[in-house]
Hints:
Order of helices and strands: EHHHHEHEHEEHEHHHEE
Low-confidence stretches: 1-31
CATH class: Alpha Beta
Strand content: 15-25%
Number of helices: 10
Distance between the termini: 30 Å
Number of domains: 1
Largest sheet: 8 strands, mixed
Number of strands: 8
Helix content: 40-55%
CATH topology: Rossmann fold
Shape: globular
CATH superfamily: Vaccinia Virus protein VP39
Mean pLDDT: 85
Amino acid sequence: MxxxxxxxxxxxxxxxxxxxxxxxxxxxxETEPPAxxxxxxxxxxxxxANRYDLFNALxxxxxxxxxxRQVVSTANxxxxxxxLDIAAGTGDVSFAIAQGSHPARIVLSDFNAEMxxxxxxxxxxxxxxxxxxxxxxxxxxQLPFADTTFDLxxxxxxxxxxxxxxxxxxxxxxxxxxxxxxxxxxxxxxTNPVFKTLYHIYLKTxxxxxxxxxxxxxxxxxxxxxxxxxxxxxxxxxxxLYAAGFSSVTYKNLTGGIVALHTAVV
Length: 266
């Protein structure tokens, strides 16, 4: 397995840029344009890559493994499935589906080479379970793949970090075959008001503390907290998926709505 670096230009469409600016406002700042937001996010994940998996385990109290099992079940891959994992990071989703479902091929993609280096190390240690896995450096907003290439596209905790979210959703739709599924695990809005308040306090205080302790980058985890709180709630994100062209969209709340698992069909 090799890591491929693929570079491609960003869209210069002013309307697209304006839309992206609105989308990152709450998560980043009032004035930061999409290109700067993208660079900032890239720098954060470069700094935390080697401790990211440990952070996930500690900050979620291990519950993220339960969420991952739900992704594997919902993805429902088989030996014929051609799969793309977008914003795959260190490879949790790809390796879990490789182990549980043994698809024909997985393209494990992320725009951050440092995160993919960790995924490469995990693959070298045997976590690929014998599945053909290719690592590709790629931007989820402009995927370097042909139309109707994949049966399954997954994305866990990645859409909220893409400045032009609608572009990311349209790209997932574009590369899927007719009848293909886009499975998105993303932080969402807890449904119980009291639980939601406690959860937001946890995000604001505990997450930056743990992240800073592990990586020395407390501010990076302040950003992650802000990006979670700014992400559209379940029904709004469902509407975005329909607007991107998907014909059927369902979602399931996990752990009281801390995360939601959306499934969109082409």
